Amino acid sequence: MEDNKDNSVKETEQKPQEQTEGKTGGKTMAEKAIDRFAQMMVTRLEEMKGQQWEKGWIDGGGRTHGLPQNLSGRRYSGHNDFFLQLHTAANGYDVPVYATYKQIKEAGATIAKGEKAMPVIYWNVTHKDENGQKVSDEAYEAMTKAEQEKVKTIPIMMGYYVWNLQQTNFPEIKPEQYAKLQDKFKAPHIEDATGMYTSKEFDQMIDKQAWVCKINNVEGAGAFYSPTKDEITVPMKKQFKVHDTPEEVFKDGMEYYSSIAHEMAHSTGVEKRLGRDMEGHFGDKKYAKEELVAELTAAMVGNTMGFDKRILDNNAKYVDGWMDTLKKEPRFILSVMADVNKASKMILDHVDAQRLEMGMPALQPKEEANNGKTTEAKVAPETKMDIAAEPIAKPKTKAEEKAELAKETAAVFKDLKEKHPDALLLMRKGDFYEAFEDDAKKVAKSTGLKEQHIIKEGFETKEGEKGVSYVNFKNTSLDKYLPKLVRDGHRVAIVDNLEDMAKQRIADRNERQIKAETSKNQQTQQTSQVAKTIPLDQFNKLETEDGKKIDHFAVFKMKSGNYGVRAMVDGQQMSVKALDKEDRNAFFEHTTTKAALVQKYYGKELSQPKHEERSRARAM
Fold this sequence. Notes:
Layout: H1 9-12, E1 17-18, H2 29-50, E2 69-70, E3 74-75, H3 80-91, E4 97-99, H4 101-106, E5 118-128, E6 134-135, H5 137-142, H6 145-149, E7 152-164, H7 170-173, H8 175-185, H9 200-207, E8 214-217, E9 224-226, E10 231-234, H10 246-268, H11 285-305, H12 319-328, H13 332-357, E11 366-367, H14 398-419, E12 423-429, E13 432-436, H15 437-447, E14 452-454, E15 468-474, H16 478-487, E16 491-495, H17 498-528, H18 536-539, E17 550-557, E18 563-569, E19 572-573, E20 577-578, H19 581-588, H20 594-606, E21 615-618
Parallel strand pairs: 2-4, 3-11, 8-10, 12-16
Antiparallel strand pairs: 1-7, 4-7, 5-6, 5-7, 9-10, 12-13, 13-15, 14-15, 16-21, 17-18, 18-19, 18-20
Helix pairs in contact: 2-12, 9-13, 10-11, 10-13, 11-13, 14-17
């Protein structure tokens, strides 16, 4: 544990501290926070090992459910969720609600003497000019694009301190507000006919097969995830009933859902989802890390839902290795928790979708905006919950996306042929021109090029022929072959790449669907007078409409008091932009998406020429 000097009230009145490059001597607050998190994990592992694995990872004991949030109602993001849950459970607090020194002071409360704060860390960026001098956010924003390109933007880790409300006299001076928070976070005691804990959300997800892969309940089987089949197998719930007392039988039900959550965590890691390194084999370091990610994800999901995850017997052998690694390299916890946060969020998004379908409030509050200052923002009361407009749709697999693109490509070709029935179409593709079907036969006949037959999904194969007729040639040969085509009486049209046009069609269609859905949600809002947000998977989709990956996105309060937005897209750090009031409100209320804001504020910098459906004939 830290001594009082590291997390005293006096220090929290200062600005958040940053982890700078080349620092010598004492550690920054962010570095201290990493050490604290690693030590908390080592201590928990040692305690659990002494209990022979009967204790849960977090050991919330079913007292609370829901994710940690600040006093204004927003959740903490990144690595903070798990450790604030652990801190809440370890101290037996009633609610996982935390506040900064400033928030506590503004609420008229005081921190109890001797109480130690918890660190909260987040990523930020700093700017340095060509001479290595720091450039303020305001100065950077005022620069031209050319000037900004000369400035180096460096990601940094920063932090601030928070206290649980029970570390203050808040419960005494705000008894009604605190009672509402207790009701909100009190875990319900729900059991089935046999006395085992039951989760309606998980049961419905399994019954409807609403998870990202199939979940099989098989009597007599062990629990495992098969990457090759992309399927989860778990034993029947009744097989987990191994105790006799009502209290332990109730916990046996929790163990059933914990096992499912563990295997669900593994299923998030494959390439088509979160893309973790899944190549490890039982007993090696890669496998050990993946098991730790799955264990902590299941623990975080379980504790959020009111139960916990006991360590699996077959993972007990890794405990000493995990502790040794954390002691030698505390930053290992950052790598693990980054994966845990993504996996647990994917699972909780689907859990919330089921809860909303059943008329239950979502477990996930609005996210913290990666900046300590945003804790001071004025938001709705703590009792207001996030409501998603629609249940989360199962994301498309790569195979489904490929099939959709193939179908749309064939449709584009068909439409072009209908618009230009008397034209021979040559499509650009990279350094080549290509032709299909009857056009390919004509090109081959006039030029002497070899007609090929290829299997192309979406194109119809004529009876008696294997594959679709196809011809291609280098674009440098166009001047050689075009006169021959014209000489034989063909009217030739040069068109853009079919797949690019198909992708644009799909993107446009998706955009229309989103707009239509948004319009529908707005109409429903006016009718029911219930504010609805964009679905969580859509809100958090970190990909722009033209397929660029959003590596980092944050909305934050600047020193000027205004809000700004920053993003890193496809590895490129974008400049800080001032966020207008309407977009700021839309972001915090989840009525716009992160991708939409990136597109709006950085669209000109990211845009590529749109591929439109056009053709131009060359009359020779």
